Amino acid sequence: MTTEETRLAESLEQLADVAAEAGIDRASARDEGLRVAAALAEAVPGAAPAWAEVAHPGLTDLGRINEAFFDAASRGRRWRGAPTDLLQALVDSRHDRALDYAEALTEVASSAVMLGTAPIWVIANASAASGAYLAAARMPTSSGMPSQPTFPQPSFPVPAFPVPTFPGTEPGAERRLQGGIPGLGLGTPDTMRPTVPGPMDPSAATPATAQPAAQPATEPELPAEPERSVEELLAELDDMIGLDRVKKEIHRQVALLTVEKLRTEAGLKAPKMSRHLIFVGNPGTGKTTVARLVGGIYKALGLLPKGQLVEVDRSELVAGYVGQTAMKTAEVCAKATGGVLFIDEAYALTGDQYAEEAVNTLVKEMEDHREDLVVIVAGYPDPMVRFIAQNPGLASRFTTAIEFDDYSDDELLAILDSIATGSDYELTDEARRRVRHLLEATPRGPSFGNGRFARNLFEQAVGSHAWRLRDAKEPTRDELRLLTADDLIEQLDVRDDPDQTGADPAALGAEPDGEAAPGEAVSEQQHHTSATEPEDTA
């Protein structure tokens, strides 16, 4: 191992030791640490092989290395600015090792960004993550007031901007920190779209002589989104690029449920159709977007009272302690009641007692709320077959599977064009030819990002475009909006010869973003043929 790899291995071992002392399974803590490390190092050139040397010693196949690395990163992105699940469990139980665990996580974050030459925004992401971990772990003092959380002196290089002391004195301060570092303007960290730190907010620090802040006024409620009809929602589905098989099946489901409702209203017997669905397909094929539309369609049909989408994976259903998984799963189901619970990578709920407890609870909740809860499970085809087969209750409730095909080259180019148009850019003909060449040369394995590939390609082209115009004094409007073949040459060279740049060949297929806040998602695949800014999809 290199020095950097040894450091990551040691920080993971330290994390596991603290977890064991707190009564947490060492393997679960190590897995959580690996996901944090992958999420923070995702944009660091050459980090994947170094990470795999620690996570999967002896693994040499580059394709499998990248698949494991980006899978771990996708499962850890939401912890870039929020406490991890095991840390949150320790905090919630007022465990005296919560702070030790948070500090061990900061060491993992420090080690992760040293796996390669990290860009400045990656280091900022690691600072944001470390701050969120430490802030969450500051438990109330004997006086009932939260202690003042502060940053430790990080052991990795920090950008030349001030790191503030967190306020931490008002109720709910720990939760507020999950949006990023106050005063730095980081928000939710995003490795592919770096945020330039702004000036420190004077209100971020609370001087000792300051008077207690007044309670903020109640925020006005946002206006409710206008109700949309089934026809409008189906039209939005039909406007999505590709997905012909998906569109046909959703239309069929709507017809079945509509007739079932009409027969019931007419006093006729109607067989109860299962509303739960299985989505099978590779990442980036629009599963989350379609799940959100299904929730809206079911609401418009009068089958669901709210139609909201709650998206989770195994980590949000399974707890770190035996016996807590059932409560955690039930809480998630309660949040989704009235709408759709979307479980991504549902096949991860197999193979251990925690997964079995989660599935048993899920089946019970589906029965208890069969009139106002729809569950959609998603993942790769073969693992999903094994997931459904593990419990008879699942097999009887999930009777409809919808397959999401990979996008063709023409469809991916159309997605890229729509993303560019929605951002006031345009690809030249030469750039479009280069994109086609790139798509033809890109293998379509399980780690291929589909719509995410197009989104990442666009974002990197925009970065190259900005660099190309860095010395332009008065660029023309066309120069500001046209993406040329030169803006795509760097990505193409990385694909053709990754060893020249040190970048990972699969980096273009990796999802750039963590979980987006509701209403703020920006998609890697454009589902309209218009210039509307796309919505996030899975």
UniProtKB/TrEMBL annotation:
Residue span of region Disordered: 182-228, 491-538
Residue ranges of the TM segments: none
Superkingdom, natural source: Bacteria
Pfam families per UniProt: AAA (PF00004), AAA_lid_6 (PF17866)
SMART domains: AAA
Keyword tags: ATP-binding, Nucleotide-binding
Bias-annotated ranges (Low complexity): 204-221, 505-521
Residue span(s) of domain AAA+ ATPase: 273-408
The UniProt record lists the keyword Transcription: no
Entry similarity comment: Belongs to the CbxX/CfxQ family.
Protein name: AAA+ ATPase domain-containing protein
Native organism: Terrabacter terrae
